[in-house]
Amino acid sequence: xxxxxxxxxxxxxxxxxxxxxxxxxxxxxxxxxxxxxxxxxxxxxxxxxxxxxxxxxxxxxxxxxxxxxxxxxxxxxxxxxxxxxxxxxxxxxxxxxxxxxxxxxxxxxxxxxxxxxxxxxxxxxxxxxxxxxxxxxxxxxxxxxxxxxxxxxxxxxxxxxxxxxxxxxxxxxxxxxxxxxxxxxxxxxxxxxxxxxxx
Length: 199
Fold this sequence. Notes:
Elements: E1 3-10, H1 15-18, E2 28-29, H2 36-43, H3 47-65, H4 73-84, H5 86-94, E3 102-108, E4 112-116, E5 121-122, H6 123-131, H7 135-146, H8 152-167, H9 170-182, E6 188-192, E7 195-198
Helix pairs in contact: 2-9, 3-8, 4-8, 6-9, 7-8
């Protein structure tokens, strides 16, 4: 488990100073969006599969049970819980790093939760690190599917949590796509400053 430090609210420009580990001089910089806004925009297509899965499962469950299985106002409550769990999302990113590595968790203005670590991981481990927060969507989604149809309030909360948990990692899914596309086998991948490198 790495050493986790809470850094509070920071400016996007400060991200670079918290992500400055030791970088091998042979490291190759990946081609990635230059700003957080550009990253969020380019990653948007990765939201589509998550919402197709979510709403397909809700419609299938409603169809099987021949009733509306979700009390819609409770979806908002679940989404709020899911928003609070974004801090857990960031912790899930950093737990894959080795013991003793410094990991910084905070909020980049205006309101983007961030986990900042600069340490080389194997390509496989880096991908796991990126995708681990999907658990915050998968677990409530399974609970929603298994929950009785008549518990519409609970189903609404679980569905809202699942929506947030499945939607929030979409930039991470985009990063995984780029890592798979750009990084050769048996390389290590590392955040450094505002960029991602492999060596």
